[in-house]
Design brief:
The complex is a heterodimer of chains A (about 110) and B (about 120). Chain A is mostly beta strands and about 110 residues long. Chain A is built from no helices and 11 strands. In chain B, about 0% of the residues lie in helices and about 50% in strands. Chain B has strands spanning about 5, 10-15, 20-25, 30-35, 45-50, 55, 65, 75-80, 85-95, 95, 100, 105, 110-115. Classes of the chains: A mainly beta (about 110), B mainly beta (about 120). The interface of A and B includes residues 35, 41, 45 and 48 of A.
């Protein structure tokens, strides 16, 4: 059983919609990363957070340490946001990857 | 601009050949990782290193080997490639210094095809 669970696994939405991707983990963290992987395979680190909330452009990441839960939000979604989003638990010097959420934004 | 480099980007090779996938980073990170990813699937950790002369096998069994003779260099070697090794291989690095945790940095990956 993966210690990091993401939902949904697949998400298709219309351009402009507000998107939420969820990540739940079962063991303590030092930090939680949100990654974006485009169809070409390249991976970009979007956020790294261990508490609270971070915002970068249209992307917002939040984390609730007590509930062991993090969310990634995308406002005013755009087709170029189509990618796989992966959360990564960086805890006790071990990285545990979520299964990923495949997001498709339709124009 | 990438601070972690993987070569080659694409490789097509015949069964039985020995290959080495290169990964180098310029950030001085102690922690480096190799992941294997089949199309549309999860990343699986196959090897990691927490510093020079430190290497460990990851969660996914792999017939590859790694070495870490220098901080910046973490090559992965397949002694005898097989079609089952066809996959994408991603290298990553990070750092923890006291309470400071650096973001993960990924290379662009090597897409390996074994015929």
């Amino acid at each position: 059983k993966n210690e990091v669970e993401q939902s949904p696994q697949n998400l298709t939405a219309q351009e402009g919609e507000f998107i939420t991707i969820n990540c739940s983990y079962s063991v303590g963290i030092s930090a939680l990363h949100w990654l974006q992987q485009h169809p070409g395979g390249g991976i970009v680190s979007l956020f790294m957070l261990s508490s609270g909330k971070k915002k970068h452009g249209r992307l917002i990441a939040t984390i609730n340490i007590q509930e062991k839960h993090s969310s990634l939000h995308i406002t005013a979604s755009h087709p170029r946001d189509s990618a796989v989003y992966i959360c990564v638990n960086f805890g006790n010097e071990k990285l545990t990857f979520g299964t990923g959420t495949r997001l498709t934004i339709i124009p | 601009e990438a601070d972690i480099y993987q070569t080659p980007r694409y490789l097509v090779i015949g069964t039985g050949k020995k290959i080495t996938l290169e990964c180098s980073q310029t950030m001085g990170h102690d922690k480096m990782y190799w992941y294997q990813q089949d199309p549309g699937m999860e990343l699986h950790l196959i090897h990691y290193s927490y510093g020079v002369n430190s290497t460990e096998k990851g969660d996914l069994s792999s017939e590859s080997t790694v070495s870490r003779i220098r901080t910046e260099h973490f090559p992965l070697t397949l002694e005898s490639a097989r079609p089952s090794h066809t996959s994408q291989y991603l290298c990553a690095s990070s750092e923890i210094v006291q309470d400071f945790i650096s973001p993960l940095h990924f290379g662009n990956g090597t897409r390996l095809t074994v015929t």
